[in-house]
Structure formats: structure tokens, C-alpha cells
Amino acid sequence: MANSKKPGGLREMLESMYSVIALLFILVACVELCDAAAAFDVYRLIQYDMSGSPFGSRFAALNHHAASLHFPPGVDLSRTVLIIPLRELNITFVREYINQKKPLGGLLVLLPEVLSFKTGGNNQVHEKEKMKNLLAELERLLIHSNIPYPVYFAFENDEIDTVLADIKKNDLMGQPATATTGGYKFVIPTAEPKKVASPTMTNIQGWLSGLKTDGDANQLPTIAIVASYDTFGAAPALSVGSDSNGSGIVALLEISRLFSLLYSNPKTRGRYNLLFGLTSGGPYNYNGTQKWLRSFDQRLRESIDYAICLNSIGSWDNELWIHVSKPPENAYIKQIFEGLSNVAEELDLKVGLKHKKINISNPRVAWEHEQFSRLRVTAATLSELSVTPELLESTGGLFDTRQYVNETAIVRGVKLVAESLARHIYGHQGKNIQIFADESSLAVNPAYIRSWLDVLSQTPRVAPFLSKDDPFVMALKKELAGHVDEVNVQHETLEGIFTFYDSTSARLNIFQGLDDLISLFRRPPSRKLKTA
């Protein structure tokens, strides 16, 4: 009789084991659904295609254990998320890992809080300067690489520093996190990215009409002041572009405000029309500028005396550069250069001239004025940049934040452009007359510049992720309308060689291995961070 009961007892024992195993699987699944030990906002590396070739981070979802740079040699990292603070980053290591296509579950780069547009980061000047070059080099590497795993950025804080310290301690003890040993698990439960369908661009233009005398049948000449407002960077959700080209936008708004004061009085209204253009698609060969200009009728295009494009004028010391496509000996170019040079000398500044001939057959457009030049309209770009930027560079990346912009530089840039324009409009060339003198009713307003610079420095502006009625676009339109007579908005589709993907930001949930599993039985789940 005893022997006949053994099979039943064995069967019950196996069933009990299977039940326990099933329960464990259920509990592991529950960990994914229950509250995390900690949760953070993270910002995904941009994903895009250029001429059909993939670039950036090609995945978004994450579900792996975390490790630091102290992982044991030869360990398999194909199911591991590396968490690396920027201050500890070895760019050679990252470059080799990417170029040699070594397997990795994911990468999380921790940025110093000083770079966060949410905190202001006015302290630790020496630290942010130290990080700038490293971050610029990392950004160039990441946006020009095809990376087959999720890459995210986050800002350091006390909670995530505690997590990282714990991970480092375990790695140094030779106890890397796994499903069996515990440790920290990083989870981003998000859908895989989808293509952005028909991304839009919005151009905003405003007019200040010149004074036309009775019997004057001819159309008044026009001067255009233009700035591109959108950005591009490694993390679209962080690309605020305080200098490139927030400084240009701020300068344009202030110049429009100053001339609106002059043009509101018939006695001081000039005999030039002033056209203000805030354009989109700047990082993508100034695609928006091209479409804006092609919407002009021939009569308007021919009326443009010249255009001044403002690009990155917020972090220079004593010299700005005028970039042109026409030869320096061209009469119109000489007029622009001499006008700016004379005012610069009075302001104790320097301006240099850089000539770069355009190639009509080459679709690459490095400067905004080149779109004007392609239509035979005289134009120049004023910039602190002396060297022509490469494609997708100097377009408002991770390091281009408020802390790196000097609002005094923008004030001086506005004075330079406004005085030069006014002397041209009112026929005061060569005369030492300050129309926008300090302490006068026409003085440049530093507070206005500062307030708009602060707004722009908290507003990511990557064109494919801005809708037609985006609050920022509407605010820009409203602000310009407060200074000029007539404002029009032009919506266009971003065309060309670029395709973009969504999922630019997410919430990272961090689970602390086996402890979280056990805690489900002991107490209600909590978001309070557990430390080792």
C-alpha cells in the first residue's frame, strides 16, 4: 500500500513545484507592472534617415539590468544598459564600441545638472566649460552613427546618483546585475518609434511699410531681416539652441521693436519697406527659407535691396563675421560691409568678411543667405562663426544652452545691425549719428532681450516635432505682430533627404532586482528609492 502512494505523492510534489515556478514568473511580470523603486525623465537620441541611410538610435523600448563602466573584462553586455556620467565618459571607448558594432542592451548618458534648461545652472562655470567640448564631440559621434540599441540622456540628481553608486559598488565587487543576482533593472515600456508623417514647417513674416510720397508710382525698396528659429541636436527634447539660433531670433524681435517705434510716426518713417522673416527648416539646408522665398512674386523679390540673416550672435567677444556669396568687390556687398564696419568701429567692435561662392548644382546650403543668392537676391549672414558649419552642426545641440550665451553680446549685435540699417534707410552713411543711443527712447532694451532669451532657452524647437499650431510658433507670431503692421504665416512640408521618427522622450522606471519582488508581499509598492 505504501508503494502504491508514491506516484501520487511525487505528482503532488511536481505540481507544487510547477505552481511555485508559475508564481515566480507571474511575480516577475508583476514587477514590470508595479511601481518602480525610482523613475526619471529621459530623452532619446534622435532617430532619422538621411538619403535612406539610418542614423541615430534605432530603438526606444528598454528592459535590461544596468551596469557602470566598472564592468568585468570580457563580460557580455548585449542585455545590459550602460549608465555613464558625462564627467566620466571616455569618448575613445564610446567611439570604439559604436564603430566596432559591439553588442549592447542600451546606453544612458547622465548630463550634469548645470546643463539643464529647467534648473538655470548659473553656477559651476568652470565645470560647464570643461564639459562643453566633450559633449560636442559626443554629439557629433552619436548623430552620425547608426546605433542598433536605445540611447537616452538624463540629468544627474541625488536619486540617480544613489542608484549609480550602488551599481558601481556591485560591479567593483564582481557582482554584475542579472535576473538571478538582482541589482537594478531599467525599464522603458514604450512602443517602437514610427516615422513622422509629412513633418511641417512654419514660416512667419511681418512688414513695416515705408513712407510712400504722393505721385510716387514706383514700389519702395525693401530690406529683409531674417532669422531661422528651429534647432537640431542629439536629443530633440533638449535642443533649445540658445545661441543657434535663439540669439538671432531675439535680435530680430528687438530690431523689429526698435523700427516699429520709428515707423509708427510718419515724420520718422523711412522710405524703405522692412520685411522680417522667422523661418523654419534651418538645419536642413534652410528648406523653409527656400520655400518662403519662392512664394514671393517677382516684383517683391526684385524690390529687395538686400537681406541680413542673423545666425548665432550670442557668444562672441569682439568680432563678428559677414558671410557672403557674391564677390567682396560687388557694389552691394561693399555697401553692406562698409555700413556695418563703420558702426562697428564706433562701437569698438570688429567685423570681418568671408566670401564663399555657391554651387547651384550642390543641394547643400550652409548659410541662410545662400538661399537668397540662389535667386539672385543680394544677402549676407552675420554670425560669430568664422568657419562654415558642417551639415547638422552648430544648429542648437545639447551644449547650446542659456549658460553659454552672453546677452550683452546680443545687445551689441542689435546695436550694430540696427544702426547700420537706420543709416542706410535715412541716408546717414558715414556720419557718426547714433539713432539708437543709450538712455534714449530708442535705446536697445536688455530686459526685453533677456526675457525672450530665457523663453527660447526653455523651448526645444526641432521642426519635425513642432505642429502648425504649436504654442511656441503662435507666441512668436503674436510677438512679431505686436511690432509690425502685417503678419502672415506660411505652412509647408519639410521635404528633401530627411526622414524623422517619434518617441523623443520617455519615463525610465528603475527596479531594484529581487528586493522589489519580495516587497510586493510585505507592503504596498512605493516610489521611494531603496538604497543598499
TrEMBL record:
GO terms for cellular component: endoplasmic reticulum membrane. Coiled coil: none annotated. It is a single-pass membrane protein. Keywords: Endoplasmic reticulum, Glycoprotein, Membrane, Signal, Transmembrane, Transmembrane helix. InterPro entries: EF_Hand_1_Ca_BS, Nicalin. SUPFAM superfamilies: Zn-dependent exopeptidases. Its main location: endoplasmic reticulum. PANTHER family: NICALIN. Belongs to the nicastrin family. This is Nicalin. It comes from Gossypium mustelinum.
